[in-house]
Amino acid sequence: MRWLYELKLLAVGMTGLEKDALHIYVALIVFVAANLVFRWKARSGKALLVVLIVALGNEVADIRYNMQTEDNPYLFSSLHDIVNTMLLPIFLVILARWTGMFERTVQKTSSDEA
After folding, report:
1. Angle between helices 19-38 and 46-69 in degrees, nearest 10
2. What is the gyration radius of the CA atoms in the chain, in angstroms?
3. Helices (H), the chain
4. Alpha-carbon span 57 to 52, nearest angstrom
5. What global pTM score does this model have?
6. How far apart are CA 104 and CA 35, in angstroms?
7. How many angstroms separate the CA atoms of 104 and 114, rounded?
8. Which residues neighbour 2 within 8 Å (Cβ) at sequence distance 6 or greater?
9. 85 and 24 in contact (C-beta within 8 Å)?
């Protein structure tokens, strides 16, 4: 799993972002991509499961790497990362369900009014 850790360090170095910020961006990319690829509505919340699977996979890899290199799983850090990763996609699903913010509106044209 060292390759994944090095890939993350490369992403931090190339973007100049902190790891917490990268968790948020990756979560949004996965959330939007899952909705687009599977043609799900954001309000369904199905993409949250995809984001959670990616987040859990990432944290399992982190825990394994930490156990190999430092003999400490840093479980609270992993829990922090999962919450950080899931928070914004959950918020978007809540907005999509209980507001009209993401609803597509149809504009009337002059021919529709006649």
Report:
1. 140
2. 19
3. 2-15, 19-38, 46-69, 75-98, 110-113
4. 8
5. 0.84
6. 15
7. 23
8. 65
9. yes
- Provide the residue count of the chain: 114
**Residues 31, 50: contact at Cβ < 8 Å?**
yes
Asked if residue 37 has pLDDT above 80, the reply is: yes
Q: Where are the domains of the chain?
A: 2-101
Residue 55 phi, psi (nearest 5): -65, -45
- How far apart, in Å, are the Cα atoms of 52 and each of 23, 96, 103, 111? 12, 18, 25, 46
Q: What is the pLDDT of residues 64-90, one digit of tens each?
A: 999 999 999 999 999 999 999 999 999
By C-alpha distance, which of 107, 89, 96 is closest to 26? 89
